[in-house]
Amino acid sequence: KQWYQRRVVITAGTEILGDKGLNLLVNNAAITSPEIFTKVVDTTPEELNHLYNIDVSCTHLVTTSFFPLLKVSASTNSSLPMCAARGLVCNFSSITASIELAPPFGSVMVYSYALAKCALNMMTKMSAHEFKQDGILCVAVHPGWVKSDMGAAAGEDFGTGDVTIDEAAQHMIEIMQGSTEEHTGMYMQKDLKKLPF
């Protein structure tokens, strides 16, 4: 089934983009649920699998499906240094993914979400290593605690976010425009500031 989905994506993408390929892929997949605040010992495998499927497996499927089109762009624009105009995969991560900064938000646990985003960071790092030979960048970005439906899912006692959607979008655009070969495989927040894995 996945191989069929990939063929559909590649065919549709090729029809739309022609022989130019795709220079920028933004993976903004994320999901959360009230269960993310469940203690480690009370978190179910179903909860873990649910978040992993969206944040990791689906991101992997999208990236690998569009990879042939990213390669076309990177090859067509090989006179350019590694940059978004040539080929960039931008994975939306989270500050909760940082092992060094864990537990995120002090005593508040977001166990299942943090595990899924941590796996996404590893995907980014390993993809960056493999994609570099084709001239394609891959970065993981933390957009901030965005004032969105998901950002406010915990309720007012936890807070509702500190960055507007427009501000987060602007930060992400700046990261994408500023990413170069030295940034590939990195985990960053606004102003291209490196975050610890």
Kindly describe this structure.
The chain has 197 residues and is of the alpha/beta class. The chain has four helices and five strands. Helix 1 packs parallel to helix 2 and helix 2 (45-76) packs parallel to helix 3. It is globular, with a radius of gyration of 17 Å.
Summarize the structure.
Helix content is 42%, strand content 10%. The chain has helices spanning 2-17, 45-76, 111-131, 165-178; strands at residues 24-27, 88-92, 137-141, 187-189, 193-194.
| Main sheet strand line-up | 1-2-3-4-5
Rounded radius of gyration (Å): 17 Å
Helix percent band: 40-55%
SSE pattern: HEHEHEHEE
Fraction in beta strands: 5-15%
- Total DSSP helices: 4
pLDDT < 50 runs, ≥5 residues: none
Could you say which structural class the secondary elements and strand pairing correspond to?
alpha/beta
Output mean pLDDT. 87
| Terminal-residue CA separation | 34 Å
Broad shape: globular
- Characterize the largest beta sheet: strand count, sense, and whether it forms a barrel: 5 strands, mixed
How many beta-strand segments? 5
